[in-house]
Amino acid sequence: MRYREGGSLDTSAVRDRRGMSGGRGLAVGGGGLGLVGVLIVVVLQLAGGGGGSAGALGALAGLGQGETADNAALEQSCADSGDANDSVECAVVADIESIQDYWSGVLGSGYAPTDTVFFSGSVQTACGGATSGSGPFYCPADQLVYIDLSFFDTLQEQFGAQGGLFVNAYVIAHEYGHHVQNLLGTNRRVDPGETGPTSGTVRLELQADCYAGAWANHAETVPDDSGEPLIADITDEDIARALDAAARIGDDFIQENLGSGTVDQDAFTHGSSEQRQRWFRAGYEGGDPRGCDTFATDDLG
Question: Residue 270 class from Cβ within 10 Å (0-12 exposed, 13-18 middle, 19+ buried)?
Fold first, then answer.
């Protein structure tokens, strides 16, 4: 993946809270789950359940003191769009801008841009407290995406993913897919706590994968404010790496390789590795979000 040189990056859609106190940081789903457990339940609790409410986390928690964003360092290090080729944080800034430009073009006035919060360690959200072990997530109660950028290292080191800038972009595009679902009301079709291979929770996740693929199809042509695309090139290898990552965050892979060693389909919340690959590929090859209606099919793969 390669970003355009000589352009500008807009960091205004990022709230950089790294290095700031995030409070005690309630572990999502209860203390001690860690990344493996949280990845299985995070969207149920933070992004999908409760029709846009806090879901299983209970009462809403306001932002803690000391969480005011400070983008000064980010603005300085990500001044040129070409900085995204050498910096993960600048690449994510570029991804966010491209993804939101894409959805603004698709939905028009129906799309409301939102921010991504960079945090380290723990963070307070309108859905409650979360730790780095939560992985990236979207909170519908405050309509923000949250990520500790160390997740990208964990994806390679713990899950064995090949990784790379486009894999990171896929992760971000998936979370913004949840924002689109929230704006469209799709997440209100999911019953809190629902699990299983054909559950609404799984359908929500697979649709977000498909939405990420649809953006990827257009990423090289989505114009920024200058009229030029921020993303200059996505290769076949990039797509292969994204499919590799999708396989490694499937419920069956996580349960078998990073969990109990036994696959329990009744506990699925994200979909199998094969399903996640299938729906990302469907979005990428079709390039049309209207082909991502996972709620209208009996065949999820």
Answer: buried
Q: CA 172, CA 256: separation in Å to the nearest integer?
A: 25
Q: Is the pLDDT of residue 4 over 90?
A: yes
Rounded to 10 degrees, the C-alpha dihedral 38/283/243/197 comes to 50
CB atoms within 10 A of CB 13: 16
Task: Report d(CA 190, CA 237) in Å as an integer.
Answer: 35
Residue with tokens 């996580």: 254
pLDDT digits over 173-210, tens only? Answer: 999 999 999 999 999 999 988 999 999 999 999 999 99
8: DSSP letter: B
Tell me, what's the pLDDT at 192? 86
As a whole number, the mean pLDDT across the chain is 86
Q: Residue 298 contacts by C-beta under 8 Å, 6 or more apart in sequence? A: 198
Among the listed residues 101, 56, 91, the one whose alpha carbon sits nearest the alpha carbon of residue 194:
56
Of 18, 257, 301, 45, give the one whose Cα is nearest residue 161: 257
Q: What is the pLDDT of residue 47?
A: 33
Q: Which amino acid, 285?
A: E
Helices 165-184 and 200-218 cross at an angle (nearest 10°) of: 120
d(CA 27, CA 30): 5
* Three-class secondary structure of residue 270 per DSSP: coil
Q: 63-67, 74-78, 162-166, 181-185 — which is least confidently predicted?
A: 63-67
pLDDT for the residue 68? 57
Q: DSSP character for 4? A: P
